[in-house]
Structures are given as C-alpha cells and as structure tokens.
Amino acid sequence: MRAHGTLLPGEVCEALSKLVELVHPERGGAPSSTVYHALLVLDATRKGPVGRPRLAHTAGLGEASTRTLLQRLEEYGMLSHSRRGYSITPTGVEALRAATSVLRGLKVEVPGLEDLEALEARVPGPRDLAGVYKVRDHIIMEGCRLALVGRCEGESIVFPGAPVEARPLEPCFPGSLIVLVKPGCLPRAYTGIARYLLEEHCGRES
Predict the structure, then answer these.
(1) What is residue 7's predicted lDDT score, i.e. its pLDDT?
(2) Please, which contacts does 135-139 make with residues 24 or more away whose CB atoms are closer than 8 Å?
(3) Structural domains of the chain, with CATH
(4) What is the pTM of this model?
(5) pLDDT in tens, 153-167
(6) Using CA atoms, how far apart are residues 79 and 101, in angstroms rounded to an integer?
C-alpha cells in the first residue's frame, strides 16, 4: 500500500506501528488501553523505576488494564521490570521520542464548546471534506462519535465544512492536523490518528 500524504520518517512509522499493535486486543473485543495510555506510561518511567499502582493512577486505568498494558510493553521491549518497579528501556525511549515528535495534546479555546479536548499531528491537515472524512473515519472506528477535524492556520484552527471557530492556546505547527473530541475520547483518538498516520503517511496497514 502506498502512502498518500507526506511520508513520515521510518523510525516514526515503526514506533506508531508497534504502539498500535501492542494495544490491540488479543482475543477480540474492545481494547482496554490505547496508544495514549502507552505513551503516558513510557513518559512516567523516564526518570527511574515506577510501581504499578502509581502507573495505573498516571494512566487512569484499572488494575487489570494496567497489568495487561505493562505486560505488552515488556513484550515489545519498551519496559523492563524489577523489584523497584518498571523502567523504560532504550527501545521505549526511542518509541516515545518518535511518537511524540508527531503526536501531542493541544490546548485550544472553542467558544460555546469549552469541554472539547484537542490532539495535534504534525502532518498536513485537511483542506476539504474528503480529507476530513478520511481522518474522522479512523477516530469513529475507535468509538468516538463526535470529532472535529481541521488544521492549524496561525492563530486560528480551520475546520473545513464546519462553522466552528477555535484558536490554539499554545503554538501549533503551521498547517498541522488538529482533532477535537469530547472529554474521555482523547485516548481513543490517539489510537485512531496513529492508525490514520500509518495508512496515509507511512503506507502501512494498521
């Protein structure tokens, strides 16, 4: 499969591919964790060993979901485990660095829709409805029914086909993809956008 958009660096595509794969449920059903949760755990272990209860609190996951995620991160060589807790490995450091070079949460202001959360991906955002639908389909597949898809344009965010005004409260990358979702959907949006990036900007099936 060929990538249709800007081709991302190989290390970024590899990191996104592994992160999407490790949060995929092994026996079907809904995933218990997301790419967002995996990145939170990796980031929390950067400065030294961290115990499972603290990681569960950091990720906002239950005990069983946290145990499964930590096990998967270990299996993929991104975490190591000792009596003191979990520590990030060089493989985990590289995956975290690569993924967060293209994905991050963004603070935005949306008059009348104050409770929305935002995600920025450093790839070109859509300029027409066809591009919007392509992104939104991946997010809906993860269970988020409402998603506004647009792009950063200086001090504003433009949403093709939607009469919504928004502005970033911190600098966003010119032309980058911006996604707004309801509270609670941001973790699933991360996985949806990671899948979109793999298909459209890495040329891989997700």
Answers:
(1) 82
(2) 135/177, 135/179, 135/193, 135/196, 138/192, 138/193, 138/195, 138/196, 138/199, 139/179, 139/181, 139/185, 139/188, 139/189, 139/192, 139/193, 139/196
(3) 10-99 (1.10.10.10), 102-201 (3.30.1360.30)
(4) 0.91
(5) 988 999 998 888 899
(6) 20
